[in-house]
Design brief:
The chain is built from nine helices and no strands. The protein is an all-alpha fold and about 300 residues long. It comes from Sinocyclocheilus rhinocerous.
């Protein structure tokens, strides 16, 4: 069983989750900048060495050339997108918990927390699916050097012109396959670790900052351990030419395993895990701090 504060307010979860999303972007953006720069660096010519030898080299060179602000380039767009997404995500989790309580004093079991987390994944898919489709198309465009879209809005307009709203939402089923179980794992792991790390006789709301950071970071790791395979399939499917995979994700899965083996389902594992811990640790710390503030200014909300 999981001990938790008894009064659940989905509305407070919404605002605290939004603040947690801002913290996640702020903590995770430098590694995201490095990841994109490594992914899009030009191929070295004969006798030339690569622009960046790896993650650490890219970090050092960016810091030396552009200073600390160089690591935060392009942060406005993810903050605008991530803040409402995490607000909706935490709102969905709060609502999922509240729906399963018969009385405000009910303590939820871990399977119930997993189910509440899965509901949050359903909520965020409506926002995530089109955003992910556009982001993936722009990322592969940057790598190929062929400019078809001037930016996110232009990409959305062109997709809509080509095949209507269906084209913008291409890959929704795969986004659901990724986010529903991964969100369940995300929130259940966090609540389980919070409860495990709470000293005897204390409440999980009194958890120390290092404990919150550890629980949040590990929740991010567990989330992505579940999410990476469907994420790889989703990226492939969303960036494929129209009609390439008539049977959807089954065709993508068959092609990927046939051509690159089962290990290809965990592509980008290191980069994702490296970013998952600090970004999600910051997210949950931001959430807990905002929740304490909201409980202080509006205890009965």
């Amino acid at each position: 069983m999981s001990k938790q504060p008894q009064h659940i307010s989905p509305l407070k979860n919404f605002f605290a989750g939004g603040f947690g999303g801002v913290c996640l972007v702020f903590a995770g953006h430098p590694l995201d900048t490095i990841k994109v720069r490594l992914q899009t660096q030009p191929k070295p010519g004969p006798g030339e060495s690569a622009l960046y030898r790896g993650t650490l080299d890219c970090f050092k060179k960016t810091l030396a050339k552009e200073g600390l602000l160089g690591l935060y380039k392009g942060m406005a767009a993810p903050i605008i997108g991530v803040t409402p997404m995490f607000a909706v995500c935490f709102f969905g989790f709060g609502l999922g918990k509240k729906l399963q309580q018969k009385t405000p004093n009910d303590v939820l079991t871990y399977p119930q927390l997993f189910a509440a987390g899965m509901l949050s994944g359903v909520f965020t898919t409506a926002i995530m699916a089109p955003g992910e489709r556009i982001k993936c198309l722009l990322q592969i465009q940057a790598a190929s050097g062929q400019v078809k879209y001037a930016g996110p809005m232009d990409c959305a307009k062109q997709l809509y012109r080509e095949n209507g709203i269906r084209s913008i939402y291409k890959g929704t089923a795969l986004t659901l396959m990724r986010d529903v179980p991964a969100s369940g794992m995300y929130f259940m792991t966090y609540e389980w670790l919070k409860y495990t790390l709470t000293p005897e006789g204390k409440s999980p709301t009194e958890l120390s900052v290092p404990s919150v950071l550890f629980a949040g970071g590990m929740a991010g790791i567990f989330n992505w351990a579940v999410a990476i395979p469907p994420d790889v399939l989703k990226s492939r499917f969303q960036t494929a030419p129209e009609g390439k995979y008539p049977n959807g994700f089954r065709d993508v899965l068959r092609e990927l395993i046939r051509e690159e083996g089962i290990g290809s389902l965990y592509k980008g594992f290191n980069a994702v895990m490296l970013r998952a811990f600090p970004a999600n640790a910051a997210c949950f710390l931001g959430f807990e701090v905002a929740m304490k503030f909201l409980n202080w200014i509006a205890p009965n909300l």
